[in-house]
Please model this.
Amino acid sequence: MTIAQSAKPSSSNIAVTLKRLIDLLEEDETDEYGILQPSQSAFKLAMRFVVEAYEAMGDRFPKASASTDEKGGIRLTWSKLEPECEVRLVCPADAEQQAYLYHELGDTYAVEHNVTASILVQWLEWLNQA
Model:
């Protein structure tokens, strides 16, 4: 193993998250419930947020699950079991709509509109420290 390989583990949280996002592009276009592949605008927005958050957080960046909604929007979910909490970034299929961030700890939850990468970083740091 070279130094470069050991410095960049393939199982890092950013690698897992990016692979899960890219895997969405390989889904069938549709099924009986709706669109499975993300729209180009949702994919680009999700990638931008993930990369910018990772650049700010480095190894503290937690891995996310990725899914699409029936319209081709993307939902990235970061969750923790103890305590039970989660952060969700929703990137809509329609480029005219704004992304939003949902966060929850126990019975307390809220939605952040006007999402930026720095707001995402704040909530991912919150999740890490919960």
Remarks:
- The radius of gyration is 15 Å.
- The chain is about 35% helix and 25% strand.
